[in-house]
Amino acid sequence: MPAETSEKPSRTPAEILKAARQRDSADKRGRVLKAVQDMLRDNRRITFAAVAREADVSSWLVYAPGLRERIDQARARQAAQGHQDQQSGRKVSTASEQTDLLLARQEIKHLRTENGQLRQQARIHLGQQVEQLGNHDLVDRINELTEENLRLSTAERQATTENTQLRQRVTELEDDLAAARTSLRRMIRNENLA
């Protein structure tokens, strides 16, 4: 009776490469799904671009079938939560954030103009008072003006910080829009090729 061999048939390089690609694809998809879960758990805003950054994958991958639906579900879940938050007054809408950004920019411009005018008025009044007051009165007046200047500088810094935060929000929204446009172009191109 001939001996049976239990050797595995050797795989071709193409089969090895295919298996490696499948493992890599599964790993990347797993990282995307984990990133979505982590972002939901940490209550971080989910966008396609943010998920791609978090998972360290290309932005087109997050629009792939199977992943896009999961991300859309997570975004819908956050949007529903956001709607509940808005109704309860805990969170503002995107339109409200954009309005806040516009108002902050206008306020910064106004504060800068007002600051310049106040400085000019302070110089004029200080010059007039120097002629009329003694040293003690001048020191008191300088202290008052210094405090007013500090108050205005603090208000300007706060407005600048708010402006920076709102600009970052606008950048995130622009990233989402760019990623969505890229995905749409690919989908149209794929449909045309099919």
From TrEMBL:
InterPro entries: TnpC-like. Residues 156-190 form a coiled coil. Residues 1-10 have a biased composition (Basic and acidic residues). It comes from Streptomyces luomodiensis. This is DUF6262 family protein. Keywords: Coiled coil. Pfam families: DUF6262 (PF19776). Residues 1-29, 75-96 are annotated as: Disordered. The keyword Ion transport does not apply. Residues 76-87 have a biased composition (Low complexity).
